[in-house]
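Morning!

This is the sequence you dropped in the shared folder:
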Amino acid sequence: MYKNVFDNHLLNKKVFSAYMFYGQSDFLIEHYASKVALSFTSSDDIQKVYFDDYNYNSCLDTLSQSSLFSSHNILLIKTMKKIPKKEVDKLIEACNINQDSHVIFACMGETDFKTMAKSFTAKTNSAEVRFFAPNIGEAVKILNDVAEKQNISFAQGALVHLYEMHEKDLSLCISDISKLSILQEEITTKTITNQCFGMGAVSVDDFLNNLFLGNHFKKDLYKLLEEGINEIYLVNQMTSFVQQLFTINTYLKLHGTLNIIEIWGYPLPKNIANERANIAVKFSQDQYTFMLEQLLKLELELKSSKITDSNSYIQAYIRRFSASLR
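The structure's back. Tokens below.
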């Protein structure tokens, strides 16, 4: 079903034995999975299985038993891989037999989950919800709701600017909204441009410039991680930066001159625009392909692997990444 149909079910307090959320918006998938889970019980009582930790027999045992701590037995499974139909069917069946149990699948990433969705039917009292990337109006409404809950005022057009700056990644936008709340003032597009690439002692923007210019960056990287920046957030910023450089590189090859408004739809300070252009022309198309592949690989490893020390791992990975660009 589509989001609007499921929203009506939520409004009418319709309860399903099993839920599956998938599609083009990881933010909406995670948001609805969490929202449904919390509608049954508190966060502490939700049993969570993420990515490579999935084990069919263990999940089946969990759903077949009653919770010792709550009236509902809620299992949230986050996955980037299709789960075999027989296993999905058995997990749904367990929830129908033990009506205190509910299983929620948050299916992330680029995998085609449509065949898996066929297991969710009215006959088994289960729901599959497919999300599409929100249009800009829907996205700004989501961000505005978040801002209102945190009592933050945004000037007209500022949320659109934030959304476009983060390549339409709602999770990154929401992270920055929380950071901007410390300013206790109306947030304008200028505020976002000046503040959203690093509000701590070290600027993420400075780190990225040094990294891709071949300058010393290790001290900045260490300080960013010491300040507590999320490793996946940092990798996403690196990926977004590379995409911006590639866009500038391609535009310059096609037109010969730099027009930031045509590229992004909004102006950047001249010194920043020129700095990005100087970096962009350093790399070939093959290097851009390599960089994006490496960063996507790193993000996947951070999300799905059992890395015991992600801080040290990402420092070593980025050092190797930098050396490969020389």
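Headline: The mean pLDDT is 86.

More detail when I'm at my desk.
O.
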